[in-house]
Amino acid sequence: xxxxxxxxxxxxxxxxxxxxxxxxxxxxxxxxxxxxxxxxxxxxxxxxxxxxxxxxxxxxxxxxxxxxxxxxxxxxxxxxxxxxxxxxxxxxxxxxxxxxxxxxxxxxxxxxxxxxxxxxxxxxxxxxxxxxxxxxxxxxxxxxxxxxxxxxxxxxxxxxxxxxxxxxxxxxxxxxxxxxxxxxxxxxxxxxxxxxxxxxxxx
Length: 203
Fold this sequence. Notes:
Layout: H1 9-23, H2 27-34, H3 50-54, H4 59-84, H5 86-101, H6 114-124, H7 126-143, H8 146-164, H9 170-183, H10 185-193
């Protein structure tokens, strides 16, 4: 379920802080400002992620946001693993996810964590990450609703981790999935009401 704790408390604490700070960089807002796309808080859902960046009309900005938000999760995992092993990588992974969802710079009102989640699972276990990406594509484009893809992908992560990996990261996958579902609670309510916007739809 989880790797053995082999790193020192100091190293784990360092990567908890470093992972959080890396995850907290709001690339969507930075790109929107640099590319003169407006204030994301006043566009669409007000979210800072790639789906809402797409509502500005800039596919380039949305793609860059997706890559950078995913990249920061992957970098946190890979750098922490190089310094302290698997247990350190998982601490950094969870911290990066929390940093994206609850960044101190934005008064803890961040994104929903989908791209960061995918970057993390790709770095933790590449086959599992590919499976989660495929699950997102199937879920999202079958109904053209991004949040459906996110929920399907998150829900599939623990099972994929159990079948495609050693199982040491199942606990992490469960925590990440819970965070995704919690951050999408408003989307779930809109899905039930039939009012969730579709991919590319401006609101």
